[in-house]
Amino acid sequence: MICTLCARKCGVDRAAGQFGFCGAPDGMTVSKIMLHPWEEPCFGGKAGAVFFAGCSLGCLYCQNKPISAVRPLRGMRLTPRELSLFLTDLQQKGATCIDLVTPTHFADAVLEALRLVRAELTIPVVWNTGGYDSPETIRACAGLVDVFLTDFKYGTSALAEAYSLAPDYPDAAAAALREMFALTGAPVFDGDRLVRGTVIRHLVLPGGRKDSAAALRRIAETVPPGEVLLSLMRQYTPDFAPADIPALRRRVTTFEYESVREEALRLGFVRGFSQDKDSADTRYTPVWEEER
Ligand code: SF4
Predict the structure, then answer these.
(1) Backbone angles phi, psi at 251, to 5 degrees
(2) DSSP secondary structure letter of residue 235
(3) pTM score, whole prediction
(4) Gap from CA of 5 to ligand 1 centroid (Å)
(5) Which of 13, 14, 55, 105 to mutate to test the pocket of ligand 1 (most atoms within 8 A of CB)?
(6) Distances from the Cα of 224 to the Cαs of 65, 133, 182, in angstroms?
(7) Which of 26, 149, 165, 260 could disulfide-link to 212, CB 3.0 to 4.6 Å?
(8) What is the atom index within ligand 1 of the atom nearest the CA of 20?
(9) What does the pLDDT look like over 102-123, one tens digit per residue?
(10) What pLDDT is stored for residue 204 in this prediction?
């Protein structure tokens, strides 16, 4: 299979032992499976999280480099059948959703696992992605995934290339987002819990205020701002950034974050979450009222 699962479209033949940018082998590699209490508040309780090894982006400031950037990938090699058993086990243990974290580069196998157990899963299935999926991969999620929890990291090619080695990221993320929203439509809640919809995360970066505004404008051109949930994050911490990139070696200022938040409101993103100043502890604070 010539791999085009993500927007990088390396075109390597993984079945023949070739590796692309993500470092993924032909089979699936999973770093960790756990009940995870720190997912977005709209998922409630504890998410049943599956953390996949590797990533098709190369974000310099990534907090998960031991999982995403180590080559060869480290973790459990699972078949779709084995993964499907873990998914039903998470549900039995009380998970409030199935949270598939960075699944894109294993999309074929993950979707095969979902097909095996979809009828048994009564909790929402969340595709938790960096946003660099190919449109075909998102379309293949139809009937299997309930919620897309996607990053939209950059509004300009310059920053996307400098920080994630993906100059086409804004175009690729917009194309993927369009497909996600086409599948889910506007958010649907069961009580406080999101059971269907698209949640867009944007992490404000130090010195990235203008790029963030461009990203928000791009999102607003792609999907109706009032019909998606926006999670505007200020949890950036400089600890994981390389020492030789001074621009990334500080936190985001209140002025930077608030100016991006004002732009979000100006564009009509009235549903979602922002974060308080102490969000390096990942304490999420819902500030915009959910409409139901
Ligand atoms: S999933 Fe990996 S191998 Fe496939 S196109 Fe993306 S980066 Fe390349």
Answers:
(1) -85, 170
(2) -
(3) 0.93
(4) 6
(5) 105
(6) 33, 20, 11
(7) 260
(8) 3
(9) 999 999 999 999 999 999 999 9
(10) 97
